[in-house]
Amino acid sequence: MPVHHVMGNEGNYPYLLALWLLPLAGAIVNWAFGPQLKSAAGALGSAAIGVAFVATVLMWGAATQSVPSTGGVNLVGAHQTLFSWLPGFDFGLLMDPLSLLWALIITGVGFLIHVYSIGYMDGDNAFARFFAYMNFFVFAMLTLVLSDNFVGLLIGWGLVGLASYFLIGFWFFKPSAVAAARKAFVLNVVGDVGIMFAIFMIFASVHSTGFGDAFAFAGSYNTGWLFAICLTLFIGAAAKSAQIPLQTWLPDAMEGPTPVSALIHAATMVTAGVYLIARCAPLWSQNQDAQMLVGVIGALTALLGAILGCAQWDIKRILAYSTMSQIGYMIMGVGVGAYEGGVAHFFTHAFFKAQLFLGSGIIIHALNNEQDVRRMGGLIKTMPFAFVAMLTGVIAISGIPYLGSGFFSKDLVIQGALQHGHPWLYAIALITAGITAYYMCRMLFVTFLGQYRGNVDPSDLGIRHPELAGTSAHAAEHDEVHAHAPAWLMNVPVGILIVPTVLIGWLMFGGENSPWAHFFAQQFPHPALPAAPISETLTAVIAFALVIVGIAIAWARYGVAPAQQNAVERLRQESVRMPAVLTNAFYFDYAIDWLFVRTSQLLGTLFGRFLDPQVIDGAVRETAFSAQWLGTLVRSFQTGLLRTYAFLLVIGATCFMVYYAVAMGAAK
Amino acid sequence: MSPMAVPIADYVGLSAVIFFIGVAGVIVRRNPLIMLMSIELMFNAANLLFIAFSRAWLHNAGHIFAFLVITVAAAEAAIGLAIVVTVFRTSRHVDVDDIALMKG
Amino acid sequence: MRKQLYNVGAILKGLSITFKFMFAKRPTIEYPSIKKQHAPRFHGLHELRRYADGKERCIGCELCSSACPANAITVIGAENSPENRKSPGERHAARYEIDELRCIFCGMCEEACPTDAIVLTPRFEMSDYRRGALIYSKDRLLVPPEAGVGTAPDERPNGIPADLGRVAEVKSTVDVDEGYNATNRGQVLKVQRKGLAILKRDD
Amino acid sequence: MPDWIIILIKSAILLLVVVTTFAYSMLAERKVLGWMQLRPGPNRVGPWGLMQPAADAAKLILKEDLTPRTADPLIYRLAPFISLLTAFSVYAIIPFGASSAGTWAIGNVNAGILFLLAITSIGVYGITLGGWASGSKYPLLGSVRATAQMISYELGMSLSFIGVLILAGTTSLDGIVNAQAKWWFVVPQFIGFIVYIITAVAETNRVPFDLVEAETELVAGFHTEYSGLRFGLFFIAEYVNMLTVSCIASLLFLGGWNAPFGLDNLHVPGVIWFIIKVGFFMFFYMWLRATLPRFRYDRLMAFGWKFLLPLATLNLVVTAIIVAYMGH
Amino acid sequence: MAAFWILGITLIGSAIWCITNTKPVYSVVALLLNFAALAAMYLTLNAEFLAVIQMIVYSGAILILFLFVIALLSSGVTPFSVGPNKLPRIGIPAVVVLLIALGFLTYAVNRVTANAFANTSPTSPVGPVGTAGVFGSVADFGKALFTTYLLPFEITALVLMVAVIGVILLAGDQAPYVASQKQAEEVRREMREAILRGGE
Q1: pTM over 0.80
Q2: Do E198 and E157 belong together in one domain?
């Protein structure tokens, strides 16, 4: 047996177990006793997550501890072995700074979103089921980030996919929701399979699935083998994090309730890919090709998401594409080796994207499940709080210097790309920043400025499927009387989120000496890099200039007074003239359809129509005829009497016995 | 631990006899319950061998597999009896000679 | 869940009740050796009384017989002869039989009797193995001379005949004197109930 | 003296003790039932009715032994003996006390508790075969009920044992008792204890689980056709089984011959404590019989499979997890 | 040695009794005797845990199930077999064939024993560390079962579960839930349309 490598200091950490299992307990209780709990289900579900958050904070000291080990390498964080299943698979929990960061977001932001959901889901007839699923998701996600081995990670990976499937299809009476849930699940499973193959390859090399063993071996893998591992791992990451070409499920996933979109499809689950790559930094650092691949795909996704964000009218889809784009940034960051930047962007993004989603949730809830921005407008007067919430979010995501957290982290990523020697990625990232500012402001202006257009006929706005806009089955059901929960239940979490959205970025201020860099000092490799040709300040200036351009264009198109005057006509024109390539999201769905589904079908047809009946069947038919003849002969032996068969069996066995006895006798 | 008092070949012989009695039961009897019991006899003959060899070589793998055989035998008996009950429900009597749907 | 807990509570409650009963006072009267005390006017087995001088009270008038709703009494009167006076009057009962199987113990005979000869006593242990033994004739109904004259119901202390054996003190309203244990009279009745007298009569 | 003679003598003594205990526990049951029903109970034969068992025995022995015409003669005669044999053979391993010389048991088997399970699982054959061989419908129904009931409840019983085994870390009965020197297992294994008590009542076919011999429905269940001594053997087997499960309950959950509440310095012999504990359980059986009505059959099965078994499993899992994390 | 022969003869005798009885209940009794003798033989082979398991599982559960089914089905009224025996003359050939097989097997075993099993008396038992001399005990068995042979154990658990499901399907209530075909068709159509519209 090779030496067993462990990450983290072994010990008993009751808080760690508590924070891992509390959401599961909440889920089970909500699931089993939902009907009895009635409205207490929400409070219970939130409380479970809230206590888990407290436990996470209490784990802070243990998670950041660093003790020198015998091998000269520091053991960072806390590790608790739970049980050993089969040789090579010991299950345990690992909490180091990286896991801690994710756990903080999952439980902290998760808690706020749970509280928000009490208000948002109020009156739904499956209230307890919703919280059971949400708690289950939190448990699954914690399993993913706390596992100390690849199999545990894969279990968590699969479970979050399952939870996501449950929650996207939560309103299962909407066929579109069910279709979206199915799509998400299928694409996620593609990723799961990728990771599974990666685990097979890792196990084949190191005979263990533990992170510690796999990373300790990092320098000794065969290069091609390592690239294959990274590639298959990245397939998983791409599927979960909606990277090209597996990104198509994310916009559709917006069929789920808005808190779900905020928690799962913006703040936590979709960033699992970022976590995976950051966690496997020792593997990626050993392989330039894998880094390049991930970086390029991340950058392309960022750009593609941003472009598609410009063409959407559904407020949640706009946010979904922006999520895709931002995750592209993160993936690019961790891909090229700027791990701290990528992770930082995850951290800030979790706050401001949750902020945006929850803000949009307030609007959607107030407008009775209307999601099309063309049927909004002028909401600044009626919903000033929502405007403030959305505004801070937009500022953060656009990267206005020093005003929002997004600026700092995005800057880290962009500068990181350049530092690690990828000028093209740097350029794409900068351009994307500008586009981001444009489409986010576009959403903000169309939604909040001008006149309210909710009463305008859908076709006058160029909405092609009026029956699909804002008139989902759910809305129809609750059209009449909808007893709204007190607004503060939804407003308070949003209000709390404004603080980190605006301020959290200051953590990253100061580059190498920032608390952020210090936090991860032990976690990520820091190879010596040549100085970047463009300084960080200059990058910030360029980025800011592009952002200003984006905002200006948005203002000119949607914000200025003339645009507001004939907004209805302009929106109709724009909707109708939207390039097909954009409305169809670069034909990715069609491409997948053509490349995989249709080809399989075609192949199937080929086999079915020609190969099978003519070639195979032809051969078989002839065989069959002879077999039939033989069968007629043999059939006479088939008496159907069980005992006859048994007797024949025994005679056969006896023959063998006689043969062996005789043969053995002869051999003597 | 003292060596075995009885040579292993005797156990093999005993096991073979019991096994063949079981086989005879399956072939000769047409009551499915007795056939199932005969199968249990065969299982037991195999188990006896497992345990005798386990003792001879002082290795507990034989014990483990005898245990697994018992478990599987339990499953087999349950399924077999369920089939007997089902057959009885449809035809009010159980006779393996009548269950000849696979007749050629 | 609540229902299950309720069930547990119910079981515990039942257990506590039976446990309490284990130490409760038992109302059992150990009958053959201890008998239950009856009301003073309890209607049990009949007896024929005597006068203080030993003469029978019954004069064979058959009023009891005609008063009997169940036709259980048979009286056949006879003249007293001077040398053998059974009763103070002219007549006496030659035969006096009560079929206790028919009798409904209503007390009409007692009411009808002009000489207070027939009374109902609190004796109730009349079971027997043969039907015939339950037709009580005069030899068993008449108080034997050595046992006194019999007691009128109103004069009966606490309504307890002297031959009932130990009496259970079950009624707090009535005090039981000592000395009501088995007496000669009880012994006589016991012997008669075994059927000896009847056999003699059949002979 | 050779070992086997000692064992023979021990067995004879034990047999005598058990049979006497059976006789008087039967009397005690009639007494206790009487008291709980505000009656004095049997008190005619001998002082306080103490000779009643002898009278009963004489009656049963002298009664005519009938064999129905439709009965299967061999098995009909065999069944009571199977019941009795299994009931008695359990006592081979039950320790009644301990002294410095060792435990008071005929044989100290390492897998004691498993041996016990094995023997009790054979016990059902007496009832089943007896009911089947009687050749009439009520006994057959009674025996079919007995089979299903005893298989179902044996699972719960075994699972409730395993919690104790995990805590004690041994399967030998005196090992288990010694492990309870400090804490009786009724405290950490309270759920297991409850499950055991319920399943034990069901295993011995006692009220409220006496569906097997339900008078009101099945006349007398599996022993409708039995009379005289053979009926008496079934009767003995039932009471001896009752005694057995009471002994097991005392050994497994109430610390066997250990003194309770730190009363060690009273220097009461362990066997006295053991008898007191067993007596308590015997009394509990009688108490139950005086209190509870009979279960309905489907409720009985549902209770066993859907409530007791999951409860016992849960108890087992929780115990295992706690022991795994806290150590012994 | 004596125990082996006594038990062996019991085993063979009860096995023959088991397969020759006309009454299935007698077969069960014979098999019970067989199992008990086998358990005793396991005890002589230091396999006390297996002996106990043999009694609990085989005698206490499997065999009683046979008895249960016999009581349930025949209850002395319905015959198990009706109609003619379709293989009336198979008995003698079967016994002959089996005796031949037995003869050759014995021959082969004797040939092999001469060299292969000649010296099989290792001095130290194969037990887990710290429990020397406990071969065949519960501890020894349990350690092996839950460490080295964990996977077979789990597979067996799966087999048991499959058997349970199978039995329930075979003998249980046979009224599976069938949703409305029309409703299912409708939902399927709506989903197809929703996919084609791409969610817009």
Answers
A1: no
A2: yes
